[in-house]
């Protein structure tokens, strides 16, 4: 494969790196050295257009063995334990091995003679932050690297942190799984996180030599793997099935996987360009989360203050609710004299809306109405013997069928909602009246045979006639509910009129509390605004590197 040279300093990569450094400096000025450090790492990688291919997955999935096989040299430990407590970076170039420690700086090794010593560092997550190995003669060049990350299923939290802390430097992720553990939940959770961050993700199902064909044919197994990830809405960029124990296995795609890595390296510049932009934006989001964490104590104190203030009808945590209540209280203070008129208008509007939207007649109603109307036409008769009695019984039956249908529709589509609306009206104006509440629930609109008969008009029982009759019944029922509702509204209005004289003082008290709440929300908004301003400032800086 031809050697890919680094871009000249004034290329797009160099400009992007300068932009990332300026954004990192801004983060550092904001006191966020950790995220700034990540962004400076990203800048260094960007300036070299360095491609990082990260190997993630179960510690038992054979990541280290796979990397050693791909490289053709045993650089990584491959014991069946969680080997790398930190990230090991391998790239091409002249032989060198470096361990970046937390307290003792950089320690160097000879990769030919001191690899066992290096391997001990590679598993010591307490003192080592990063291990880097350069080795010639592999498919990697000095601008292409493999990252071996700790097993994501390790019980050691430090392993997970180490893996996640390296993801901003990963341009492509190879996620390896043991054949027997593909559908473990952590696989789905972790790969979904990667895809949500915009990372190209390739899945490698390793150790397929464990497959027993007579239990399940391999094509069905592969289909089950793809379906499992699709169920989680995870769509990897490719899936490879490999066996290092049986290189001649019929389903082994090791060679195709190896070819993919070579192709990724050939496409280095495009992959890196897309990846570093995405990673920089993700680090901006991380920085905003740091700022939010820093503001957490101040935010908590303000929110505790909100929780300590109780005002009827107001959700103290809801900014819009508090603002609306404050505006309403200020408006009520100025227009208290017209409050009852406005209240009446509003309540009547809500009642009208409820009645207008209530549907009372359906197909079953039309059928029952048609049957009922036919029984009321002159000359209607049923039976031969005792025809008069049977006719009256049939008329009564059809009448009751229509009444039953209407009562059912009214109960479910109108009466319940009517009483719910009427019952809450006093609460809207901070009133409690048990007698009124009882009157609401005692409201009854009787549907009788006389009511049905009163809406019959002359004419043939056509479909149009039945439809008009049903509309008349619906309007008649709504008219009775409207009358009952207006009478209830009148009760509420009279109580409001009695309160107007004393509400001026109460409104002032309410206003005082609402203004206090509004001030707390203003302070919370200032915190959120500072976080948003930082995000926008950083996004503006990053835009210069687009």
Indicate the topology:
Elements: H1 12-29, H2 33-47, E1 51-57, H3 63-71, E2 87-91, E3 96-101, E4 106-109, H4 115-122, E5 128-134, E6 144-148, H5 157-166, E7 172-178, H6 185-196, E8 201-206, H7 218-231, E9 238-241, H8 254-266, H9 268-294, H10 296-308, H11 319-334, H12 339-357, H13 363-375, H14 387-428, H15 434-442, H16 449-454, H17 463-543
Parallel strand pairs: 1-6, 1-7, 2-5, 7-8, 8-9
Antiparallel strand pairs: 2-6, 3-4, 3-5
Helix pairs in contact: 1-2, 1-9, 2-9, 9-17, 10-17, 11-17, 12-14, 12-17, 13-14, 13-17, 14-17
Protein name: Dynamin family protein
Subcellular location: Membrane
Coiled coil: 288-346, 486-544
Output the keywords.
single chain; 546 residues; alpha/beta; Rossmann fold; 2 domains; nine-stranded mixed beta sheet; elongated; disordered N terminus
Summarize, please.
With 546 residues, the protein is an alpha/beta fold.
Write structural notes for this entry.
There is one protein chain. The chain is an alpha/beta fold and 546 residues long. It has 2 domains: 216 residues, Rossmann fold (3-Layer(aba) Sandwich), CATH 3.40.50.300; 231 residues, no CATH class. Helix content is 60%, strand content 9%. It contains 17 helices and 9 strands. The chain has a 9-stranded mixed sheet, sandwiched between helices. Strand 8, helix 7 and strand 9 form a beta-alpha-beta unit. Helix 1 packs antiparallel against helix 2 and helix 12 crosses helix 17. The chain is elongated, with a radius of gyration of 38 Å. The two termini are 30 Å apart. The N terminus is likely disordered.
């Amino acid at each position: 494969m031809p050697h890919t040279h680094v871009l000249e300093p004034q290329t797009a990569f160099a400009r992007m790196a300068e932009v990332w450094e300026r954004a990192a400096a801004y983060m550092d000025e904001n006191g966020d050295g950790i995220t700034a450090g990540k962004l400076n790492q990203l800048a260094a990688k960007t300036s070299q257009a360095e491609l990082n291919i990260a190997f993630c997955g179960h510690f038992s999935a054979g990541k280290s063995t796979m990397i050693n096989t791909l490289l053709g040299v045993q650089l990584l430990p491959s014991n069946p334990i969680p080997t790398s407590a930190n990230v090991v970076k391998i790239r091409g170039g002249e032989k060198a091995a470096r361990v970046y420690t937390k307290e003792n700086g950089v320690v160097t090794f000879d990769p030919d003679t001191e690899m066992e010593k290096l391997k001990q560092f590679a598993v010591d997550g307490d003192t080592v932050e990063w291990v880097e190995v350069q080795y010639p003669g592999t498919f990697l060049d000095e601008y292409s690297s493999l990252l071996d990350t700790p097993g994501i299923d390790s019980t050691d939290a430090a392993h997970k942190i180490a893996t996640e802390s390296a993801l901003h430097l990963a341009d492509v992720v190879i996620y390896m799984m043991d054949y027997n553990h593909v559908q473990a939940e952590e696989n789905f959770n972790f790969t979904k996180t990667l895809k949500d961050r915009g990372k190209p993700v390739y899945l490698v199902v390793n150790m397929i030599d464990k497959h027993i064909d007579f239990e399940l044919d391999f094509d069905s197994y592969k289909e089950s793997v793809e379906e499992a990830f699709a169920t989680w809405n995870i769509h990897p960029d490719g899936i490879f099935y490999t066996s290092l124990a049986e290189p001649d296995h019929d389903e082994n795609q090791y060679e195709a996987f190896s070819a993919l890595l070579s192709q990724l390296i050939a496409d280095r510049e495009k992959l890196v360009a897309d990846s570093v932009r995405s990673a920089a934006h993700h680090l901006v989001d991380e920085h905003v989360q740091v700022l939010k964490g820093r503001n957490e104590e101040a935010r908590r104190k303000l929110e505790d203050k909100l929780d300590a203030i109780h005002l009827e009808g107001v959700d103290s945590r809801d900014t819009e609710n508090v603002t609306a209540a404050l505006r309403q209280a200020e408006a009520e203070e100025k227009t208290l004299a017209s409050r009852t008129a406005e209240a009446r208008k509003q309540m009547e509007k809500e009642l009208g809306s409820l009645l207008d939207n209530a549907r009372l007649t359906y197909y079953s109603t039309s059928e029952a109405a048609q049957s009922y109307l036919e029984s009321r036409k002159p000359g209607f008769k049923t039976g031969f013997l005792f025809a008069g009695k049977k006719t009256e019984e049939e008329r009564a039956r059809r009448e009751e069928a229509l009444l039953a249908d209407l009562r059912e529709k009214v109960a479910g589509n109108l009466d319940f909602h009517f009483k719910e609306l009427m019952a809450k009206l006093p609460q809207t104006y901070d009133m409690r009246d048990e007698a009124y509440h009882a009157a609401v629930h005692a409201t009854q609109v009787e549907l009788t045979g006389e009511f049905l008969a009163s809406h019959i008009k002359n004419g043939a029982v056509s479909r149009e006639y039945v439809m008009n009759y049903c509309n008349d019944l619906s309007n008649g029922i709504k008219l009775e509910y409207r009358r009952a509702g207006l009478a209830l509204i009148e009760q509420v209005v009279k109580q409001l009129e009695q309160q107007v004289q004393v509400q001026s003082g109460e409104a002032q008290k309410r206003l005082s509390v609402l203004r206090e709440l509004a001030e707390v929300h203003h302070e919370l908004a200032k915190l959120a605004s500072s976080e948003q301003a930082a995000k926008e400032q950083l996004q503006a800086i990053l835009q210069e590197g687009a």
